Amino acid sequence: MRMVDLIAKKRDGKELTTEEINFIIEGYTNDEIPDYQVSALAMAIFFQDMTERERADLTMAIVNSGDTIDLSAIEGVKVDKHSTGGVGDTTTLVLAPLVAALDIPVAKMSGRGLGHTGGTIDKLEAIEGFHVEITKEEFINLVNKDKIAVIGQSGNLTPADKKLYALRDVTATVDSIALIASSIMSKKIAAGADAIVLDVKTGAGAFMKTVDDAKELAHAMVSIGNNVGRKTMAVISDMSQPLGLAIGNALEVKEAIDTLQGKGPKDLEELCLALGRQMVFLANKASSLEEAEEMLKEVMLNGKALDKFKEFITNQGGDASVVDHPEKLPQAKYLIEVPAKVNGVVAEIVADEIGIAAMLLGAGRATKESEIDLAVGIMLNKKVGDPVKAGESLLTIHSNRENVNDVITKIYENIRIGDHAEPLVLIYDIVT
Ligand code: URA
Ligand code: CA
């Protein structure tokens, strides 16, 4: 087989066979096929697309390029949740204990990564003593015993994706649904999930800016999952404004604690219930989505979800007393209110720019080497649609530096107050 022939075949709009796709991904992973040929192929895929079969084959070829996590020693259906990423997305911190409280195994491998705030692990490390450096054995034992554990990313998972993503980044071939969908799904499948619930975000703070693009990506990922034997479904949700009120690591832990008791921000609670009920249903713990939602609400209200969170923290070395005493979480030195300049209605809070404002405070990493300040971030006091009077606080900055003029400038540029607001939809669609 010659790579040049396969590039020509895709360039001409033909379908690559399973063997051809395996040949390409194996050859690329082993450095036998050079970057320039894979760049040309990626561009051909960008223009000619891939069939559902090709996408599933590409996903599995990427999965097989490295290690995979074997969760078969864990009893029950392992359901994983994946978000395509947004600002102030506290859903994982809520859903993991919430679903585990219903005896559904949550075996989560999580990363730190770049972004407006840290990843799930960074957020959890705002809890004194909490750590994810546990052995694979401890991880599996904890999930079997208490249904929940989080372990840091280890092993050589999907090396082909790492190479391919870096190459796409510099060859203008990131924005291909076939390539994005197989990239994301390969990582979930390599991490061992039996079933996958996807939260595909849309809007300013999301990778997919329009609802149509988000739907197309959701359909592509659901189809790949189902074609490779992993029950998969997706929720398409709004990320035009930040989710919930907290953007920042310790602040989001506090927000998760509130939400686990049914006292969280309404949008965050609604999305957690929408994702959670799909997880419960895919885990075969409920016979309908309605029943699944009732079960989730029950453990929020009877304290079981919060107890599960405490158990999880204790199991991984953390101080669970923060749950009842959130003031023990890292606190920023300065709380700075940002008042509205005029009367009106909050018409827009541009999610990604507000996320950058939180990053400027130190809540997220700009580069892999950056240190995160777990205490800092932003607490919204108003959301889109809320009426506001001049002088009233729009949000509170939690900062460890006194001068935050750069952050305040960014905030004023990205919160628009008008005479009315277009109603925002939180959940656009469910794709199964
Ligand atoms: N996120 C991924 O993991 N892969 C892509 O290709 C795009 C976004
Ligand atoms: Ca939030």
From TrEMBL:
Protein name listed in UniProt: Pyrimidine-nucleoside phosphorylase
EC number(s) reported in the record: 2.4.2.2
Organism expressing this protein natively: Paenibacillus glacialis
The entry's keywords: Glycosyltransferase, Metal-binding, Potassium, Transferase
Matching Gene3D superfamilies: Nucleoside phosphorylase/phosphoribosyltransferase catalytic domain, Pyrimidine nucleoside phosphorylase-like, C-terminal domain, Transferase, Pyrimidine Nucleoside Phosphorylase, Chain C
Pfam families for the chain: Glycos_trans_3N, Glycos_transf_3, PYNP_C
Subunit organization: Homodimer.
Alphabetized InterPro entries for the sequence: Glycosyl_Trfase_fam3 (IPR000312), Glycosyl_Trfase_fam3_N_dom (IPR017459), Glycosyl_Trfase_fam3_N_dom_sf (IPR036320), Nuc_phospho_transferase (IPR035902), PYNP-like_C_sf (IPR036566), PYNP_C (IPR013102), Pyrmidine_PPas_bac/euk (IPR018090), Pyrmidine_PPase_CS (IPR017872)
Any one of the GO BP annotations: pyrimidine nucleoside metabolic process
Gene Ontology molecular function: 1,4-alpha-oligoglucan phosphorylase activity; metal ion binding; thymidine phosphorylase activity
